[in-house]
Write a structure and sequence with these properties.
homodimer; Multidrug-efflux Transporter Regulator, Chain: A, Domain 2; 65% helix; 3% strand; DNA-binding
DNA sequence: TCTAGTCCTTCCAGTCACTGGAAGGTCAAG
DNA sequence: CTTGACCTTCCAGTGACTGGAAGGACTAGA
């Protein structure tokens, strides 16, 4: 199938698919006209990549996951470790964002938000002592 | 003061300060030797930028916040709106990450994680139907 | 056969906010 | 006068695409 069909079945933009080929994630065959010719397996891999990316795995993690996926001798512990590492990063990121959210929420609540210039948000950014 | 002192007092790397000058966030004076010469006010602005960035505001938001900070006629409502928009984005990002976290957690829990190859995580990425 | 329109190709540049490094000028201490 | 720490500019790279230009290939219709 052509790249637009591969894009449709995998849900990835054609541009992204070309990029994935460029960085060696997939190696579709080529027709005599130079067009990429995607097998069903290629499309399946692309869908795999799309799902892994949408779960937030990095490209390099996706590369590893894909090679594990294709390795019939793989140990599920390897996959699990990658997923657990990723889970840890997500957890930390959530905590970080929640801390930010809490701080900003306080600032927004304290700012009266009218047409006067005095603003606790700017005061805080400028380094004013709280209180 | 020289850039390394500005870096020390603001907490930003010298490289970042040069970058901020390049994109027009600050305009430090120059000495006869071509060195940047930061006033206390410059250092203060840099600290302001550092705090705003650490709260996750984009560079363009920082630019606006800084100009509002320097505008004695500003309306605090403008600042509040930027902060609220940002708060909304943080909230959505947190929800997104929590959804991801939930999915990955389920997958990790279901994967026995030993030296056998069967792995629900890969099955899921490959598009297997749940159940 | 010609043409219009849609597909495909490659290549280059831009995104965001830095970060690293090379090459070279300046300054302060000994 | 040398050493070493500072400063300068410029170029390139990061991650993961995304947009667009220039040009070749294919398909449908007149």
């Amino acid at each position: 199938m052509n790249i637009s069909d591969a894009a449709r079945t995998s849900g990835l933009p054609a541009k992204t698919i070309r990029y994935y080929e460029e960085i060696g994630l997939i190696r579709p065959a080529r027709g005599p006209n130079g067009y990429r010719d995607f097998s069903d397996q290629d499309a399946h891999k692309l869908a795999f990549l799309g799902r892994a990316r949408s779960l937030g795995f990095s490209i390099e993690e996706c590369r590893t996951l894909l090679s594990l996926y294709e390795d019939r001798e793989r140990a599920s512990a390897d996959v699990r470790q990658i997923a657990r590492d990723h889970l840890g990063r997500i957890t930390r990121k959530i905590e970080e964002l929640q801390a930010l959210h809490g701080m900003l929420e306080v600032l927004v609540a304290r700012c009266h938000g009218d047409d006067r210039p005095d603003c606790p948000i700017l005061d805080d950014l400028a380094g004013a002592e709280p209180g």
